[in-house]
Each structure stands twice: as structure tokens, then as C-alpha cells.
Task: structure prediction
Amino acid sequence: MSLAFLCPGQGSQNVGMGQDIFDNSDLAKSYFETANEILDVDIQDIMFNGPEQSLKQTQYTQPALYIVAVTIGLLLMEKGIKPTSVAGHSLGEYSAYTIAGSFDFETGLKIVKVRANSMQNAGEDQPGTMAAIIGLDDETVMKITDNISGTVVVANFNSPGQVVISGAIEAVNSAMTAAKESGARMVIPLNVSGAFHSPLMSSAREHFAEMIDSIEISNSMIPVYSNVSAAPVTRAAEIREAMINQLETPVLWSQTISNMARSGINHFMEVGTGRVLQGLCKRIDRSLVTSGVENWKQVINA
Result:
């Protein structure tokens, strides 16, 4: 069986995430200790005890998801469960690069810290929002965003009939109204701190690019499917470019999973908190075999 690891992004977090992994794994304990030093905050207290409102803040959510996904992915690989490729949704792509060996845990967490802070700051500089559109095809949603004055774009192609739009608040609101008028089954405003994966992240991209250009990145040992291209990357230069471009461009998730399946992947394992990506896989192709590992018992039984 050809296996792929999938690493979750924002929205999959929950209070208590990673605690049983921490309690049972020396690797997890060492990673949390390192994380507290790099982040200059007691991230395990926020993850294990909340409150939820704190965990939902971008500067905590992104490191929390990264820590759990990378720890579980590496624990599984220590057991001999090795994927033939890896992918991650938005923030999860950085977890994927660490699992694939492009950089170590510490470097990846420093990248995630700068990314999260840059996105938070960009959202304050240029306020924006996001919304999920359910029940319209991709082309219809793209026509809607193209016809709205102001900045609004498709940010996530999650699965057929489920996309996320992102942009300036007024433009997103106009697009939401147009989507309802076009027959969308549901239009859901998202509780986010900025217009992620849109041109409003340009200031975050500039700051983030400086950091990415300053670090050492290795060729990955396993192909990582990039959100930007929905294609596998392994060369350091490609990985660097993909990480920088990801902030302002759409997450091609539906295309990524379809391309992975066409390449021969027949088992998609979500490593990290939640079941969001397993659900998306089934909406993309009901025939796909999916599973998830998010706690210590599942690591042991995998």
C-alpha cells in the first residue's frame, strides 16, 4: 500500500491537543521544551489547558498544530511507518517539510513563529476576512470574486463544492451576498484574524521571505506536494519558493489530493489534531482509504 501523510492546518486545533503524546513520549517532551524556549511562551499550557480563545490566536494555533503533527509523524516513522509522499493544508505544509527532512524541528518552528506573527501583523495592517462557500462549483465562485470591486479571491479549493474566499471585509461581504444569490447551499463567515492566502498578505510575504532566504533548507527525502502547485517538490530551491509564495496564493487542496491519488497513493493518513483532512479526502473521492493518528493510543496501534 502506497501511503501519504497529511498534516492539518488552522481550524483543527482543540484544547488538550497533544497532551497524551507529551505524557508518554520522550521525543514529545523534548520538543515541547524546545518550543517553550523558541516561542518564549508556555505553549504546552495553552495547548493543554486553554482557554480556547487563546489557542485560537494565530501566533499560538500555528505552532501548536506544527508541534503535534511533526511529533506524531516522526514517531510513526520511528516505528517503520514511512510515507511515500507528504502534504499539509496551509500551515500543515510546514509540518510536512519537517517530516520530509527539509529542515529540523527547531528550524521549522522558527519558520512557523515568523509566519504566524507576520500573518497576524498583516491582518492588523490591512484588515480582512474569509468565508466558506458551500454548494457552488469552483468556476462560479471565481466568476463571483472576479466581478466584485475590491480585493477578494478564492483562497482554498478544499473539495468539489467547498471553497474559501479571502480579502477585504467589504469585498468578501459582497461576494458572500452574490454567492447566496447564485444558489450557494451555505455561506459561512470564518472567525479569522486576516485575509490569509490573498494579496492582503503582501506585507507578511515580504517579512517572511527575508527569514526564509536566511535559513538553510535541504532537499527533502520524501516528495512534498505543494499547496501552490498541487505538485510534488523535493529540491531546496523549489521548497523555498513554495513556502514564500504560499502566503498570497490559493491552497490547491482538492487538486493536490487528486494528483496524489493519480500518482498511486491509496492510503491517506492524517497525522495531527482533528479529522478535517480525512473528511475533505472523502468529499474529493469517496473511494480513497483514509485514517488518522492524533493521540498516543493511535500511535501505538498504527
Observations:
- The chain has 14 helices and ten strands.
